[in-house]
Design goal:
Structural class of chain A: alpha/beta
Number of domains of chain B: 3
Low-confidence stretches of chain A: 293-300
Helix content of chain B: over 70%
Number of strands of chain B: 0
Oligomer: heterodimer
Strand order of the largest sheet of chain A: 5-6-7-3-8-9
Radius of gyration of chain B: 26 Å
Helix content of chain A: 25-40%
Mean pLDDT of chain A: 83
CATH topology of the largest domain in chain A: Rossmann fold
Number of helices of chain B: 22
Strand content of chain B: under 5%
Largest sheet of chain A: 6 strands, mixed
Shape of chain B: globular
CATH class of the largest domain in chain A: Alpha Beta
Largest sheet of chain B: none
Number of domains of chain A: 2
Distance between the termini of chain B: 38 Å
């Protein structure tokens, strides 16, 4: 599969703080790639490198095979970008924003732009500064989509927005991937959204890639197992392959990587048995990998 | 923190601790020097004005300016914007607007008053100088209080804040100088100054309350018509011809109209002075000169907004992602700015060139100006007179444009420390220059030496300029921001401009007075090169951090 984004051993430091540590990532053409991580994990920093807004201190970033810093025009003319900051110029009117943005993209699709304009019901004479947060996101989405970019990059697109605008954004992602060969990279901490539309997911934790791969393969390699013990237990057993435990007293739930045989044996030794088993949600996987630290009682 | 008053004080102390420590160290140095002088039993005589200026006046004036910026929150705010520069984050504190305005004013006025009193007592003053004690402290406090009140006020138009504050400072200066020249007693001076503090406080409280409730008047529509004239063509077009055209439109709308608008506001007041002084030719001449120097002077203030890549965030000097992700090279983004500064200069001068003859005609001063022109023609001949007038206007226009663009590279670099540092350095150099110039003019021997050495000084400056330009050209080449062809064409254009100016100067000025190599050096220094070429590098440094 052709790679649209290739990040190799990217390291970025801001003073003493390491924002990205030897991050490597490949986003293939046609993929919807979700980037998940806690606040400050390094998602936006990674996206800024992909857009060429940050220069790689170590490692390399290639988008469409080009260096986004050395060739900003070659890269940015093929990317649609919706910023987390919703930093559209407040003094512009909606129609001016469309007219201005159209000038930069020869492939601008007037019909599609008008269709989006109608869908979002934005008043063309209203100033961007007078729009609500959701309407600003819609205006930003309009100018990011109207030239049908090869790569759509959305940085926390749903952050702080109401369900209707979030639905519009998800719809836009779906519409984009409906067009053959187009790629979406989006960061979010709303994991159910990522789970809904992404086919690849990368989890970032404190500047490092904690997990990355196709969504289905990732979910299939983990199981969420509920264990019931005969007696109440202060702490569950330590078993290789268990990423985290949650629960208390007699009933505990574990996210397990790989074969369940070892867990089954260990639980039986402690007088327990597995009572339920299912595929974990992305939320559970995320918490298992980068979530809150384990119960202090268990760490003692 | 026991109270909000203590919290406000803590913030000033914490944020500006290094500056405050520097001021304290300076005062300590003054005190040490004075103590040493007293201990040695030497009489306190300090008649060397230059040393006194260097040791006392310059540092005190710098400290006072620093306090003005600190206590009016001038370091963080957008002086050219309409919104109040009072930090919005403080508006949500559970305190009254009176307290929000009052505590910074109390601390600020106390700080500048203490600065004066400390300087007054700790510095060794010239023995023949009768230095007043109280009223200068109060004057400093009044300056600070009014600066706070007027900079915290939301304004209907961009740039009005600077004009209003400068006007107020001038007004206070005029009143105080007039009173001082009239030998007013200390009590009279205090009576003039004291009411200003409560008055400024009331204005500041009103300003903070207004800003706090988000009440920012907007009268930009008054000037929208001026802007619309230029917008007309682009508005009628369904689409821009090129990305560069769109970006130029963006820049024009963002700050292209600021200079014509500011000059348009000032011109009526300045031209009205022609009516008042119509019977005094000297004053008419001076007023006309002031009018002609208004565009380059105002361009200095507008330049700060032109070079700032991000007008929305007053604390941020970085390029917004919206602009940074435009599929344009950094050179194209800078070109759009340069193009707009040319339009802005032309629009401003069109305004000046149209309104001056109108004012002269309306106020009946045309015959006086025609008479001056005839005298000029008689003195130098018609061709030279025409060229002198044209060259004068061209020089003023070029100077206006130069003021707008020469600091682009600083503002576009996106580093707050560099921007603030350059302002500090420029002010320090300016102060130093004034002091040195005064010293030079008072010493005829030094003037003669300087005149002899002037070609060498100019040659050194040319060497510095060419070295800087060469370094910038190499960086532009290495970073591939400009192609070799563009670099060569740029260098050729600069050479042509230098030769053209040199030829004009040789033709215009008698070579007996001005040697041709001297004029060549002037021409080289006059045409912008290094700083202008550095703008794309600065933007690229900012855009790809």
């Amino acid at each position: 599969m052709e790679s649209v984004i290739t990040v190799s051993e990217l390291t970025r430091r801001f003073g003493a703080r390491t924002a990205l540590a030897s991050v490597s990532l490949s986003v293939t053409r046609g993929a919807v790639h979700g980037l998940v991580g806690a606040n400050g994990a390094g998602k936006t920093t990674l996206i800024k490198h992909i857009l060429g807004l940050l220069r790689a201190q170590n490692g390399s970033v290639r988008v469409f095979g080009l260096d986004p810093v050395a060739d900003p025009v070659g890269v940015l003319s093929r990317i649609g970008y919706l910023s987390e900051e919703k930093d559209l110029p407040g003094w512009m009117r909606v129609d001016e924003l469309i007219r201005y943005s159209r000038a930069f993209y020869p492939a601008w699709d007037d019909v599609y732009a008008e269709e989006l304009h109608q869908t979002f019901a934005l008043d063309p004479t209203t100033k961007i500064g007078d729009l609500s947060r959701g309407q600003k996101a819609q205006a930003g989405l309009l100018i990011a989509l109207a030239y049908r970019p090869e790569l759509l990059v959305l940085d926390e697109p749903s952050s702080g927005l109401d369900p209707i605008v979030r639905r519009d954004i998800l719809g836009a992602i779906i519409r984009t991937i409906a067009s053959e060969g187009r790629t979406v990279l989006f960061s979010s901490h709303l994991l159910e959204e990522v789970e809904q539309v992404a086919d690849h997911v990368t989890m970032i934790d404190q500047g490092r890639i904690a997990q990355s791969g196709p969504m289905e393969a990732l979910k299939e390699s983990y199981r969420c197992v509920t264990v019931r013990f005969a007696e109440s237990r202060p702490r569950p057993p330590d078993v290789a392959g268990v990423l985290c435990w949650d629960g208390g007293e007699r009933e505990w739930t574990a996210v397990v990587h790989g074969d369940l045989g070892e867990l089954e044996g260990a639980v039986a030794t402690w007088g327990g048995r597995i009572v339920a088993e299912r595929a974990p949600s992305l939320d559970e996987l995320f918490i298992a990998h980068v979530g809150a630290p384990a119960d202090p009682a268990r760490e003692a | 923190m026991r109270s909000h008053a203590a919290a406000v004080a803590w913030e000033f102390r914490r944020r500006h601790r290094w500056g405050l420590i520097a001021v304290a160290c300076y005062l300590l140095a003054l005190a040490t020097f004075k103590l040493l002088s007293l201990e040695r039993g030497q009489p306190i005589t300090f008649d060397d004005e230059q040393t006194f200026a260097f040791a006392v006046i310059v540092p005190s004036a710098t400290a006072f300016t620093y306090f003005l910026a600190v206590f009016s929150f001038g370091f963080a705010g957008d002086l050219a914007g309409r919104q109040s520069i009072y930090p919005a984050r403080l508006f949500t504190l559970p305190v009254t607007s009176g307290a929000l305005a009052g505590w910074p004013m109390l601390y600020g006025t106390a700080a500048v008053a203490i600065l004066w009193l400390a300087t007054r007592f700790l510095a060794v003053w010239p023995s023949d100088l009768d230095v007043p004690l109280i009223w200068p402290a109060l004057l400093a406090a009044v300056f600070l209080a009014w600066t706070q009140a007027l900079t915290w006020m939301p304004y209907a138009l961009p740039g009005l804040r600077v004009i209003a504050t400068v006007m107020m400072m001038i007004l206070i200066d005029i009143v105080i100088f007039t009173a001082h020249d009239s030998k007013a007693s200390e009590v009279v001076m205090l009576a003039i100054l004291a009411p200003n503090i409560p008055l400024a406080y009331l204005v500041a409280r009103f300003a903070v309350a207004r800003a706090r409730r988000g009440d920012v008047p907007d009268r930009r529509r008054i000037f929208a018509r001026i802007g619309r004239i230029a917008d007309l063509l682009s508005r009628r077009r369904d689409r821009f011809r090129s990305p560069a055209g769109a970006q130029a439109w963006f820049e024009w709308r963002r700050h292209g109209r600021s200079l014509p608008a500011l000059v348009g506001i000032l011109l009526p007041f300045e031209l009205f002075l022609l009516f008042l002084f119509r019977d005094t030719p000297v004053l008419v001449f001076e007023t006309l000169c002031a009018v002609l120097f208004t565009p380059p002077f105002m361009a200095v203030f507008v330049a700060a907004t032109v070079s700032k890549p991000n007008l929305n965030g007053s604390d941020s000097y970085g390029v917004t992602p919206f602009i940074a992700t435009r599929p344009l090279t950094s050179v194209s983004l800078v070109n759009a700015k340069l193009k707009v500064t040319i339009w802005s200069t032309l629009a401003t001068w069109l305004l000046v060139i149209v309104t001056i003859p109108l004012a002269l005609r309306i106020f009946g001063i045309s015959p006086m100006v025609i008479e001056w022109t005839q005298k000029l023609v008689e003195a130098v001949g018609t061709p030279r007179a025409v060229v002198i007038v044209l060259l004068g206007f061209s020089a003023l226009m070029a100077s206006t444009w130069k003021q707008l663009v020469q600091s682009l590279y600083i503002g576009m670099c996106g580093r707050a420390w560099l921007v603030k540092g350059s302002v500090f350095l420029a002010l320090s150099l300016l102060t130093l220059f004034v002091v040195i110039a005064q010293w030079v003019f008072e010493n005829s021997g030094v003037i003669a030496t300087l005149l002899d050495a002037l070609p060498w000084i100019l040659a050194a400056l040319v060497c510095f300029k060419i070295s800087a330009a060469a370094w910038v050209a190499m960086r532009l080449h290495d970073s591939r921001l400009l192609s070799d062809r563009t670099l060569v064409i740029g260098a050729l254009c600069w050479n042509v401009a230098v030769f053209a100016l040199f030829g004009l100067l040789v033709w215009l000025l008698p070579t007996v007075l001005f040697r041709s190599h001297f004029l060549a050096l002037i021409a080289i220094l006059a045409i912008p090169l290094a700083r202008l070429s550095a703008a794309p590098l600065a933007l690229s440094w900012n855009r790809h951090r």
